[in-house]
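Amino acid chain:
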Amino acid sequence: MRHPVLLTLLLPPLLVVGCTSDPGTPAAGPSSSVSATPSPTAPAIDYTVWQAGRSTPVADPIYPARGTAALDVLHYGLALEWAPTTKTLTGTATLRIRPTRDAAALTLDFMPYQLDGVTLDGATVTGTVAKEKLTVTAPVTADKPVTLVVKYHGRPKATPMPSHRSDVEDLGLTITKEGGLWTMQEPFGAFTWYPANDQPSDEALYDIEVTVPPGWSAIANGTPAAQSGTTFTYRSADPVATYLTTLAVGKYQKLTAKGPRGIPLTYWYRKGTDDKLLPYLKKSPQYIAWLEKRFGPYPFPSGGVVVVDSESGMETQQMITMGRKIDNTKARRDRWGTDLLHEYAHQWFGDSVTPTTWRDLWLNEGWATYAQDLYIQETLHLSDASLDSYLRQADAKLRAKLGPPGKPNPKNFAEGNVYLCPEAMLRELHNALGDKKFFALARAWAQEHRNTQQDRASFIAFVNKQTGRNFTKLINTWLDSKTTPKSTTT
């Protein structure tokens, strides 16, 4: 997610920016359910085809009400249809699930849509939606995978974001004035459009198909597959955390390009509305090339950007979601471009290498913000001393206001301390190691941990092993201190 504030150096300016029911449909009340009836036994399924979606879920300490460690979703198959005139989303979600423990029921995060049918391994079962949870009453056994199919419909509703950022917006699926859709959902909100284990530690594979009316386009995360009529299909062969999924529907223009090594890129924008942003979309190959030089090959088979009616930007996997309302006045328009580079940096840091819990959001934002500022420093020819001075000043202000980045307040999600303070820590590492060793460390971290979930302990262990030096105290101090640590390198 893009940085929520704009700070400037006292010396040359260094920009730091970023991350009622419908007619003709049954009313979806505060809870809905379907009851169990007998059904024939489903044929055996080979779940090994979704092995790449296997995770080790853990309960999130920051937002414990979201997600569960009791199940591991291996694959989401989402077949969705959007009707702009009635603002109705109709869906069939097929989840391949590995229970992690014996249980009498399955529980997932889900908005109170009207349930049209629920089956488990082909048998109709009882499903109830209440308090943003879908409970499927049927016994499951640890490590014995099951297939859950949920059919539903209703009008999407977003959920509040637990933050005081200047660009705070509700999370999840949002309906536009013209009847389109868009979503950003960090730290949660995927449950506003499909049943989800909505926490970062449970990554899964995805197949998403979305049917829209003629003249409309549907965009989602993953690699675009063949379009059939007005049905758009996307596949993620690399595991994806729920917060990194996206969906947008609108009357879009499509532009394709090639990135480094022929990586296919797709840009979705509104003609007339977004024309002034096209130069920055078209700089995507340049941004990716700059990042590849420092962090290794782009980690996915395709990339792209969809522009939506938001004030923020989000590193949704393989298809970045960028808000057209981010300050893009003529005097500040480069901010939109460097925000886009920030989101591309997240494809390495956050998407490919994902934090195990929201306690370690700094591990995403510190790297992406540092990449962004290094790019700005290079393009504006700013001195190392000015960057060092800026980071220490910004760090001091943010720690005093928000506390240390390693102990985030659940009410202050993705505020400035988890961006600038870990960036200052990475700057200390950079100064201690020098360019060659630091970027070797950064590249190895991103490339050797592709498609995994990591945390503070694993990062410290890796840094110490990679460098042959003990940086444990330095890293822990920068993550936990209430005041800016003394610099040992400048």
